[in-house]
Amino acid sequence: MTVKAIETQYNGYRFRSRLEARWAVFLDELRAFWEYEKEGYRVGSVGWYLPDFTIRCGSYSVWFEIKGSTPTNLERERCRRLSLEADSNVWVLSETPGTERVWVYDKGELVLSMSHPDTQNLWCFAFDLCSAYDHIDETLPDHTCPIVARAYASARSARFEHGETPKVQRGRQSK
Q1: What is the average pLDDT across 58-77?
Q2: How much is the pTM?
């Protein structure tokens, strides 16, 4: 039996699944500037690829691909090829924020593979570099970032049933 994802409206976008919408809530809470399914790309013999999120950090862009479980070999190959041909990072994220696994491709190479809870520090570091926040709080154990913890909580508690809209504390950065 095949289970179909539930299309979900959030922040002016129609997401293909609730999982993608929860990642949008997470990114909003982190004050990331993101665009959903902005543009598709031809990635050689593996066909077309439409990244779920384009995240901008100054003049630099990163693509995020959201998967409900471990991505297939073909899905990972498309991400690898996009990172090679576009000379940019592609992050593949599986599962719900707060339980995620992350694979990062850079210039066609898998440069990082990690699972939660180690990803919390990765998010804090990544958005600190984008100047979304002043600094990582080095007074907390393992450089824990309370903003990331709040973003996890917001994303995981987001409800979209009956037209509900999640409450986001931070909101999206402007361009």
Answers
A1: 88
A2: 0.84
